[in-house]
Each structure stands twice: as C-alpha cells, then as structure tokens.
C-alpha cells in the first residue's frame, strides 16, 4: 500500500520526537491514502512554518501491519470514534479508550478535519453535547482516511519511496 505525507521539508525517516501530541489518534506520524490531502497539508505547512511543499511517498508493509496492535475505525459518525478522538486531543479527559500511552502501534480512520475540530472544541467548552456533535458530523462531507504510526515498531512498517515537490 502507498501512503502520502504532506510536509514543508524532505525527510526519509520519521521521528516520533518530532511529532505533535494531541492528534486524532494520539502522538504519531500521520499519512493519508489521498495524494491531494497530503498536497494540501504540505501547502498549509509552508504557510505556517515556511520551507517548500513536498509530498513524501511511503510504502507500507501490509502483512506486518496485521501482526501489530492497531485501532481501526471505518466511519466517523459514531460515539466510539468521537470519544476516541476527543480523548486523544484532550489529555485531561477521562476515557477508557485512547492512545495517549501509545498502546496502538498504528491506526486507521477518518481525518477529523477543521470542521470537526471546531465541533469538538464546542463540545469541550460545553456548548454541544456529544449527541449534538455526532448529529452535526453526519451532515458533513465525506472524510478522507488517515493512517497513523505511534511506536518505533509501527514506524518500521514504512519504507520511504520518494519526495514530490508540489
């Protein structure tokens, strides 16, 4: 399987120490199965931090993926997914299922885009209930899929192939 990562620089080996905490599936290296999503991410990274826009292309060893611990969500419109993302984005939130401790080597599921991030912020501030967030999510556009890698073992699944300037 081929996955794409949008960046403002080229690198061949992702480092967990450089990854941002409090993302949808916890601290980790995130890629998309969509070249266009990665391209937009690269352009946003350049606007925010400078550099040049690149889409980094990685091949993933799917056979080895199945032998590691992972979390998989097929669709975003359910309570389990919403609670999981909220728990990872909010370190103080009590939740039984999260990946703040990197219990999963990798994960796959929908990207909580900016529109969903706004809904989640409104939930965190008490303006919406979880049910209201879920109802509002169902009427949004189709979300794209992201893959995330959270442990050193998980990162061994990735083989750098090329960098494309976009």
Your description of this structure?
It is a single chain. The chain is α+β, with helices and mostly antiparallel strands and 166 residues long. The chain is built from six helices and seven strands; from the N terminus they run ββαβαβαβααβαβ. It has one domain. The strands form two sheets. Strands 2-6-5-4 form a four-stranded mixed β-sheet. It has a three-stranded antiparallel β-sheet with strand order 1-3-7. Helix 3 links the parallel strand 4 (70-72) and strand 5. It starts with a strand and ends with a strand. The mean pLDDT is 89.
Structural class: alpha+beta
Largest sheet: 4 strands, mixed
For the secondary structure, the number of strands is 7
Mean pLDDT over all positions:
89
What is the total number of structural domains?
A: 1
Taken from the alpha-carbon principal axes, the silhouette is globular
| Unreliable spans | none
Across the major sheet, the strand order is 2-6-5-4
Strand content: 15-25%
How many helices?
A: 6
Distance between the termini: 21 Å
**What is the element string, with H for helices and E for strands?**
EEHEHEHEHHEHE
Rg, nearest Å: 16 Å
- Helical fraction equals 25-40%
What's the layout of helices and strands?
Blueprint: E1 2-7, E2 29-32, H1 35-49, E3 54-60, H2 62-65, E4 70-72, H3 79-89, E5 106-110, H4 114-124, H5 130-138, E6 145-149, H6 152-155, E7 158-165
Helix pairs in contact: 4-5
Report a brief summary of the structure:
Helix content is 33%, strand content 23%.
């Amino acid at each position: 399987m081929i996955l794409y990562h949008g960046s403002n620089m080229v690198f061949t080996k992702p480092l967990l120490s450089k990854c941002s905490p409090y993302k949808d599936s916890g601290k980790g290296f995130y890629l998309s199965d969509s070249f266009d999503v990665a391209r937009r991410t690269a352009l946003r990274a350049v606007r925010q931090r400078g550099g040049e826009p690149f889409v980094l292309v990685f091949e993933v060893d799917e056979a080895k993926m199945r032998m590691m611990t992972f979390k998989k969500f097929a669709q975003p419109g359910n309570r389990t997914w919403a609670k999981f993302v909220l728990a990872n984005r909010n370190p103080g939130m009590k939740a039984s299922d999260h990946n703040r401790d990197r219990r999963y080597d990798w994960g796959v599921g929908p990207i909580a885009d900016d529109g969903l991030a706004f809904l989640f912020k409104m939930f965190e501030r008490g303006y919406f209930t979880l049910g209201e967030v879920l109802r509002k999510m169902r009427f949004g556009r189709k979300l794209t899929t992201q893959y995330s890698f959270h442990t050193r073992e998980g990162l061994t699944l990735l083989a750098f192939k090329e960098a494309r300037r976009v």
